[in-house]
Structures are given as C-alpha cells and as structure tokens.
C-alpha cells in the first residue's frame, strides 16, 4: 500500500519507520514547511513532498494517511481523507472536541474507510501483559487504577502551548496516554463521572500544565489520572498505571527511576500499531482502537475541563 504522512514532527519518524517495517511504502509527506518536509523525506527515502495536504487526501493513488499534525488539524484532515475513501490513522488526541470526533466517525461510516486512533501504549508489551493478567482474574475485581502522564523537568513549546492549535495543554498531550491506558486495561468501559482539578502553574501560556482527574467507569472501577508538564517530580513514567484489585496489586512499569540510557518510547510498539492499522485494511476489518475509543478519551477530557472550570 501507498501511505502518506501529514506532518513531519518527532512522532512521524516512528510512523515512517513502521510503515516500511510492515512492508509498505511512504509515498509522500505533506507539511506546511516544505524545507522541513524535504529534510524529513531525505532522511527516510521518501520520493515526494508537498505543502498541499488537501490534494494528497483526495489522491486516489494513496491508500492510507497517517496524521501527525497539530491537534486542531486532525478533524479537517481526517474528514477530507475519509470522505475520499482513504483510510486514516490519526495521532492522539483524536480531535479537540467530541463534536469533531463525531464528524470524523460519521465520515468514516459514510465512505467505509477505516479510522484508527494512535493510542500507542495499547501496543506496548508491558501494557499488554498487564491486560492479560487482569483478564485472567489474577488481580481479582479491579477496584481502582492510578495512571501517570507527566513530564518532570521539561515540557513542550510551539503549537503544543497554543490553545488554538492544541485545544488544551498537558491533559490532551500527556494525560490522554494515562486515560486510554486505564480504559484499555479495564476492557474499554465508558466514563460514568469525571471530576478534575486543572490549572496552569509552571509556565506562561494559556493552556494547562497540571491536572488530577477522578474517572468513575460504568463497571464500577475508579481511575485517578495525573497529567502535567515541568513537574519537579514524576511518580510514574508516561502511561504507567497502578492497578489495585481485590486479589492483589500490580504496576505496569518498575517504580525505580530508570537508568540514563533507558528508552521509554521505542520503535516496536509503533511498528505493532502500524501493523494493526495496515493489516486490518488488508484483511478488510476495522483496526483497533477505533474512532469510538478515541472519542471516549476526548469525552473525558471535555468533562474534566468542564469540571475544573478550565477554558470557560
């Protein structure tokens, strides 16, 4: 299959390598800065670059698009591609609102093209192992989880701290990893109630960099999620989740501080994610996680901001 990349930031290096590892071709990269796109294309051996993503979205020679652009572009780019019958893998967060998620899902349903949301931690071997332990009943009934999506000592810049482009701050950037990981471990329940305290405490921008969420799920489990940038300390690595059950306790990643050469985000989970996306297309089935899964996370983000009175 011929795959197009929209955007050429850090995450697209993983996706470009994953497409090739799955035996397919990255045919073109679209980016608003042509010079940046050309440098990316040269690095990955991609033959074509463009600044016109709209033309790529409707190009019948392109089978699938991987969207890794600022969050505010996810919905318009995905909808354009889906309406043209092009399959879409969109980076997290799926969109900046539930309404946009619904429009993306409707576009996929109307054309029959596949829509998958890149919640990458579902493909990490340690997360999958924890899911299996829960399914086997090893920890009994799960009473609560505690998850982390925190940067300690650093944080992003550029469009990530631009509310118009990002739709929020650390919560849609980092917190969504912890939210989706908890939901995946629990079998993808729906949120029943969301309470949150969210604020801007560490930087000069109009988005959040600190948050604590309490999510009550429909099956009775409660999840605490922490999100943040520039924190003085982090209690867990990105997407790390503690699980408390009636039969025991477990944690996805080791509590100890990792060594200096430890790599947390590595290529294998992105390659596994791409294999699910492109493999499902070849097999004629819906790739997982779906647009509905991405929407559930954004529903929680919206409810958390509303609970905290943020961005009112």
Would you kindly provide a brief summary of this structure?
The chain has 312 residues and is an alpha/beta fold.
SSE map:
Layout: E1 2-6, H1 10-21, E2 25-30, H2 34-44, E3 48-50, H3 53-57, E4 64-67, H4 71-83, E5 87-91, H5 98-111, E6 115-118, H6 125-135, E7 142-152, H7 163-166, H8 170-185, E8 191-199, E9 210-217, E10 222-231, E11 241-245, E12 248-251, H9 267-283, H10 291-308
Parallel strand pairs: 1-2, 1-4, 2-3, 4-5, 5-6, 7-10
Antiparallel strand pairs: 7-11, 8-9, 9-10, 11-12
Helix pairs in contact: 1-9, 4-5, 5-10, 8-10
Q: How would a textbook summarize the main sheet?
A: 6 strands, parallel
| Percent in helix | 25-40%
Shape: globular
- Radius of gyration (Å): 19 Å
Name the poorly predicted regions: none
Strand order of the largest sheet: 3-2-1-4-5-6
Would you mind describing this structure in some detail?
It is a single chain. By secondary structure, the chain is an alpha/beta fold. The protein is built from ten helices and twelve strands. The strands form two sheets. The chain has a six-stranded parallel β-sheet, with helices on both faces. It has a six-stranded mixed β-sheet with strand order 8-9-10-7-11-12. β2, α2 and β3 form a beta-alpha-beta unit. α4 runs parallel beside α5. It is globular. The mean pLDDT is 96.
Task: Jot down its keywords.
10 helices, six-stranded mixed β-sheet, six-stranded parallel β-sheet, 12 strands, 312 residues
